[in-house]
Every structure is written in structure tokens, then in C-alpha cells.
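User: Hi! Is it possible to get a structure for several chains at once, not just one? Here's what I have:
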Amino acid sequence: MFERILVAVDGSEGSRKALRLASNLQQTCGSELLILTVFRHHSLLEASMSMVRPDDPESLDDSMRSYAKEVAEEAKVIAAEVGASNVRAFVKAGQPARTIVRFGEEHKADLIIVGSRGQGDVQGFLLGSVSHKVTSLASIPVMVV
Amino acid sequence: MFERILVAVDGSEGSRKALRLASNLQQTCGSELLILTVFRHHSLLEASMSMVRPDDPESLDDSMRSYAKEVAEEAKVIAAEVGASNVRAFVKAGQPARTIVRFGEEHKADLIIVGSRGQGDVQGFLLGSVSHKVTSLASIPVMVV
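Assistant: Yes, the chains can be modeled jointly so their relative placement is included. Here is the combined structure:
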């Protein structure tokens, strides 16, 4: 019933749980599964680090992109282990929630799956702020796992 | 893959959309489908109506329960029209989000489906406050439609 499922992963345990559920649902529905890892540009990261200014913003960007690629690759391995097929993985830079929703629109996904709490969501404090933003912004169904 | 899906309906167009998706997913997964309509007790309603105090709180409770039953019955008809089977409908009084989550736990649901915006969620203002609360409170996956 879902033709194209988008699952967002960030390397957190919550996002791995979301990925496993997405991989099972992919098989049940015979969908295509798109895996997306979003990393923040140094400018966005800087804004969240108050007075800290990295010496070399470009190399910081490279490190974050490289880490995001590792997360996406690990996600492909996990999806295959769970038995998913028809899987593609992507890496994008930007604000997590907006980037996930925009990517879903561009790729005509009909379901977005996210972990309830990802990296950077301090337990009990920001409580899944990315997943909340995604459900607010998306015009398609969003599953919070 | 989902054994027992709980869908919350309140008579809004958003919740009907959630119900139709839940009914399709029920068939894809061969799940049991539980439909729940929650109405507020007069004491909760009073609190949200500032100075207005109903003359006869008990008859107000009866009216709300009766309306909730109609919504639940209509939901069963819609689910059947979409082709769902193995469907049961329930009516409960209480705070919507907490009551939905507690009902899901008690009935061992493994997925909750809610509309992104229900009755009482003023468009663009409270923006799906019930669905946000459900995703925050639930320990099982929640799909916001």
C-alpha cells in the first residue's frame, strides 16, 4: 500500500529501530525504501555551539559528510540483514526536519518513518524535536517509531 | 507485521483520512483494527470553556457520549466500505492523548494511527496538539496521517 517509504537515520539507536520497522514494512508492502541521512552545515552547527568557532569550517563539513555517509552505509547493511530489497541510501546537508520533508516531496515518498528521539535530542528535554517538526511540516503520513 | 492497529477517530475529516489508511493497512498486514473515539468529561470541557458553566453537567456528558458513539459507528461503516475486517469500535471518556495511549497499552496495540489535526485543533494554531501529545507519550510506533 505504500509505494515509496522514506526512513531518516542518524546513527542513533532510535533511528535504527525506525529503520528495522521500515525494512519490514518495505517487504510487507513491496515498496521502494529510501534511506536518508542528514548532516548539518558548519554554519548551522556553529549556531548551536554558541561562541565556539571551528578553525577550519570546510574540514568540519567534510568530517560531518563523511560520518553521514558511514551512517547511511551502515543503514543499508542493517536493511539488507532484515531482508529489505529495493533500497537506496542518500546523504544531504541541511536542517534535519526540513531536509527530510523536502526530500520526501522531491522523491514522491508516500510515508516518512523517523525515530522518536535522534542524535541531539536530549532525553526528556527536547524530546524528539526533529520527529515533531517532521510531523508538523509533512503533508504525507509520518510514522514515529 | 502489525498485529493490532489502534486508530483514533473524532469525526473530523483528518481522522477519517487516518481511518481509511488504517483500514487499508489492516488488510495489508492482516491485523486486528481497533477504533477508538474519546470524549471529554464535562469537568474537562468546563475547564476549556472559561466562565461558562453548563446547567446540567450530566446531560452534557450524555450528549457527548452519545455523539462519540455516533462517530464510532460511522467509523465502523467507513472501515467496512474500505474493505477492512476484524474491526472493533470503542468509546472512552478522558483526555484525548492520554486516553488513546493508555487504551493502546491495555489492548496491546503495536501501532497507533491518528489524524494530524482533529476536532478542537484550530488550524495553524494548536496544529495537531493531540497527535503531538500521542507521539510524545506512546512507547509504540505512532503514525500521524
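Chain B has five helices and five strands. Chain B has a mean pLDDT of 88.

User: Great, thank you!
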